[in-house]
Amino acid sequence: MDNTQLFLNSLSFRYPTEPVTCYFSTKDDEEKKTDMLKSITLVPEEVKALSLFVGIGGELKLYTTYEKQCKDFTPVAVDFNNPDNEDYVKRYYNQRLKRLLSKHENLMFTQSGITRDLQVWEFNQSAPVQMLKYLGRDVKLWTLDRFTLKVRFNAANGSPYLLIASDRPASILGLPLNKLDGDVTDPFTDQSKNLTASMVNKVMIRKRHSDGKPYDRHIVSLQTLHEKNIPYVASDTLPVLNREMKHVLGIDSPTGGRDWSSKYVKYLEKITYFKEKYLTNDPDIKKIFVDLSQNFTPVADSQLGQMDATKRMLRFGNQFKNDRPQDGINAGPARKCPYIEVRLIAIYHEDDKDYAAKLLGYFRNGNYQDQDEAKRKRLERYIGTTVGYAHQSLHICFKDSQNPLPEIQNAMMQQAYNSLDSNIRYVGIYLSPIHKYASGIIASECYYKIKELFLKRGIMTQCIDARNMIAAINREKDCRYKNFIYTLQNMGIAICAKTGGSPWLLDETTRKELVIGIGAFKTAGEQFIGAAFSFDNTGVLCDYDYFRTSQFRELVGKIRLNIIHFTSINNKPERLIIHYYKKLSMRKEATQILEMLASLNLDIPVYVVSINKTESEDLVLFDSQSTYSDRNGTHQSLMPMSGTWANLGRVREGYRYLLCNNTRYGDDRFRVTDGFPFPVKLTICCFGGNGTDIDTATVELLIGQVYQFSRIYWRSVRQQGLPVTIKYPEMIAEIMPHFDNPTVYPEKGCLWFL
What we know:
The protein is of the alpha+beta class and 754 residues long. Helix content is 24%, strand content 27%. Helix 15 links the parallel strand 28 and strand 29.
């Protein structure tokens, strides 16, 4: 590795100086070993000029063999340096990569995401084969490392690159599809705890070779095998474990202590291994990728920026300021719960009565740890108001652990719930006996329906997994250090926000700014979007709603109402800022927004910051000089300083950036318990107003806003990589489709969905 401090997980190369001959046809080859180009953006400019492309009407059907000559296919010299050919060039390199890597019999391939990037799977030789007990038999479990390879163009330095990403490992169960339910002979036995084929998403199919060669392995979607009528042998097809299957097998909860080492270091080790074993030392690869770099791509100083330290400062109760929530929450909330008293209602299974009483006692008395009276961490400290127990008639004990909903509904029909004191804010503490990954429809719906029941009465609820809680309390009974106290703290700050308070705020001079956050969540195959609205730069939400993805016009109507409301209180906005969970469609979605602004006679710029729903695990920024210290000495971290951002140049969707959003404010202050989050990928575009150019000051403001809004996440004291303008709407979009009444939520200032 060179001495450059900051680098990306990519290898630069250059395109051929001369055009590359590729082959095209409007008809597929007999062997069907071609690639179909379904989108006009995939068709090279040189092909568009040919007669074979003229006259193709309706659905585009154009086939290519890339560099391989094929009968009746037309050769065309394609200029790889033409930016208009970028999409085809990506496909070309993906196909060549797959063919060249296929000579390694230990590798398997699949496609990653809608961009159809190449994902390579390899059995992890260093990970021991696990043995599981399932239906009375021993079953093997193999771990596979996964890598995604992407070819992209770096607009910042004007060269293409090959990105090497380390994806999260996968597990394959050594039990074929036709044996998932064991050897059941009685059709009337209870099979609710068995694995079924309907749970399976991806599988590894194995084709036997008659000449004695090893298996030919492929990773494919089980549904695709059936939809495309692809033959496979169930006895030679092994399932890739997913979350639901892990729950059935009882391996969905981590075992052993938490690993506090840097995930940047592990990530770099894996991609360096793959780079050196399969790419940079392979002469065939180097023929295709001209001048392929041996080292990962350094980032020039001109591409880097650093957030000012003041942007991370938070304000707590009693005007206490700190940049870490964990250090500030004991000072009390920045804005107290507006009710003079909060009373707790226990909702619990009959077997958990003692633990329900303990939990309410922990909240009210702060007696989980044996501490002096003054040091006890009561719920009162985190919400800023008196906490007591609700009247005994309001507590609900149920018997059915699989479907407690009918009993809870019946209990809430009693007189006690018809005469609640309006001067008191009630909070239901629900000890759920149902695991969060429950597969049954009734079980999985219980959480949402119970939340809705209480919201109809104006009661916020705080849910906790009863089994996990009991295990944690029992595990720490005789321990000196007790980690469950942090779970209580996290629930405390969430309750503060649910009851109308603000655990902490940004330490900023208030600036009137209309910011809209739009997030999404897919439920039962249908995607919903949530929207949250903020009227200033402190990040306090003033309104929220949810829609189906097909209801974008209704969402625009909601934005219109909020602009009118904002203008009635303040001057008209100078700009509109939208934090969006995906790329905004300029043809459809942007047009509707501009039409709405025109109806209000507002000719203002609209800035859209597209923010990936998760931390960027494909493009990662590393700092070779980054270290951290603990009781065992100094260790390599590789995580860049918090607030560092890298300009990745212009892409088709706008200007792309990587923002390092963590708590490494200085090596001497970093805590490994804060974790090692990967950067956040941002894409900024502008339309309307005076055009699409974005000046440096505006870029810094928009990136700074994302950085700050990630610091007011009130579900945990842990630093978050994503801003609440994306996370909160996603939570709303996850919950609301399960409600019978879409307007059930109470006043806007209460973040009931946390």
